[in-house]
Amino acid sequence: MINKVAIQGIKGSFHHLVTQNYFVHPVEIEPLLTFNEVVDSLIKEKVDTAVMALENSIAGSIIPNYALIDANNLHITGEYYLDIQHNLMALSGQDILDIREVYSHPMALLQCQSFFDKYPHIKLVEDRDTAEVAQRIHKKQLKGVAAIASSSAAEIYKLNILAESIQTIRHNETRFVIVERNENPSSTINKASLKFMLNHKRGSLAAMLNVMSDCKLNLTKIQSLPKIDTPWKYAFFVDVTFDDYEDYEKATAVMKIMAEEFKVLGTYKNAKQ
């Protein structure tokens, strides 16, 4: 039975590239334009799995996606780091000086801002998906309009690449997570995503971090998120790696006692190992 995977974007999007690289067996993709739709399709069991971008090495965390995973009690079962190479593309026969507008996802525009500082005549317009813009340019034969997308999107939608790798920082990685309705532990578990809330006592966060350190957990990510229904109350989302699963179990047993609220968002294999 072919696994059905929801992605934000269409064929040629970076989420699509992740499905091609991550899954060992062929999968059927369910292309959707928003992360809310991706999560909704997973909850309603229209798909088996979802792929969601969670953070970028240039632009930082995609905070709403943390909230979506948490609020819907979904489980992170894997991760994949994709080298993001942004390319400027348009219909063939055009030069960059012919381009008046560039449409792309806000994250892509942010990651390529320095490139466009050299072309003040170009208007940057936020859109829902990188590859969807490339498809639209091809379908409507839009002249004077360009997209920022993957080289795969240029190939699929028959566009000419005007400039390659236009992101501000050459090494540009996005971390994607594999999300499912239930836990699906792999044979190797050496990374975990956790959420906890603490009271407003002095040193409470430092004490929690000390527990992780004492139990030989390596903190690779920490992100705070406001608790909407309680002003000035914050939840902390952390990623930790470990060599010994028993160290992780010992740490989480103590952390559960120390926290006002504690939740495991997922345990999985560290893709950076």
SSE arrangement:
Elements: E1 3-8, H1 14-22, E2 27-32, H2 35-43, E3 49-56, E4 60-61, H3 63-71, E5 75-83, E6 87-90, E7 101-104, H4 106-111, H5 113-116, E8 123-126, H6 130-140, E9 145-149, H7 151-156, E10 160-163, E11 173-180, E12 191-197, H8 204-214, E13 218-226, E14 234-241, H9 245-258, E15 261-268
Parallel strand pairs: 1-2, 1-3, 7-8, 7-9
Antiparallel strand pairs: 3-4, 3-11, 5-11, 6-9, 6-10, 12-14, 12-15, 13-14
Helix pairs in contact: 8-9
- Beta-strand percent range: 25-35%
Label the structural class.
Answer: alpha/beta
Poorly predicted parts = none
Report the count of strand segments.
Answer: 15
Instruction: Give the helix tally.
Output: 9
Helical fraction equals 25-40%
Radius of gyration: 21 Å
Q: Provide the CATH architecture of the largest domain.
A: 3-Layer(aba) Sandwich
Sheet with the most strands? 6 strands, mixed
Number of domains: 3
Shape: elongated
Terminal Cα span: 30 Å
Mean pLDDT metric? 94
CATH top level label of the largest domain: Alpha Beta
Give the topology string: H per helix, E per strand: EHEHEEHEEEHHEHEHEEEHEEHE
The CATH homologous superfamily of the largest domain is called Periplasmic binding protein-like II
| CATH topology type of the largest domain | D-Maltodextrin-Binding Protein, domain 2
